[in-house]
Down syndrome cell adhesion molecule-like protein Dscam2 (Trichonephila clavata), 220 residues
Amino acid sequence: MNLLFITGFDLLLAIVSTSLQFGFAYRNDLPRVQKFSFPDLVITGQRTSAHCTAVSGTPPMNFKWLKDGQIIKPVQKYSIRSGADYSILFIEHVDLTTSGNYTCELTSSVGVDKYTTVLEVKEPPKWIKEPKDLYISAGENISIECSAAGYPVPNVTWMKLSGYKDGPEEVKGQQQIRGKSILLKKHTGIEDAGFYICVADNGISKIQTNGIILSISGKM
Ligand SMILES: *[C@@H]1O[C@H](CO)[C@@H](O)[C@H](O)[C@H]1NC(C)=O
Ligand SMILES: *[C@@H]1O[C@H](CO)[C@@H](O)[C@H](O)[C@H]1NC(C)=O
Ligand SMILES: *[C@@H]1O[C@H](CO)[C@@H](O)[C@H](O)[C@H]1NC(C)=O
């Protein structure tokens, strides 16, 4: 007997039927759905689907899909294709609001079974605030913000391209907060002048801004 698919109620039924019949009875007439999930990585703008299969149950059976407990109607981005013992939920143009708990509910004249799985949509980073070139005098304070949206919320980092080094280097002392970074400098000096970029990375993808030039004129 496959105990994995037996709920408490069914176990009770099984025990009752066992004690009555002096043997185990498979209840293949009881509707039962197989565990399912969405793909590991679902990105905004894509389409996706979930497949719900009835491993047992006697037709006629009825499949119902729910998102966060609300019945999904096959309109707009949702469509549903069902057979006697399966149902597929298709979702077009996935966005962040598509994330949620999805339930497949299977009903027949003798019972109900359901399974719920979570869909967590990911979004590549995109810029909200990109910096512009800045001309200042030595000794001034600067505070330049870069910010990006995405899911997961990206890490934003200021990098400086220095003339003599190979690649860009992370700027020291920048203030990194969720989804943004502020290039903060008190009493700028000539050595702060140069070419800067911001990089946003959320593990889904990595983007960078156009470079900006920080020009600093010396005091005469
Ligand atoms: C799914 O349900 C769980 C438990 O109720 C909840 O904590 C979680 O936030 C839900 N996930 C989504 C994406 O709504
Ligand atoms: C720069 O910041 C320092 C410390 O906060 C402050 O004392 C100073 O007045 C600021 N300088 C300018 C030019 O705003
Ligand atoms: C941001 O950086 C921290 C520290 O390196 C890392 O643990 C975290 O996973 C990063 N977040 C994302 C969304 O990539």
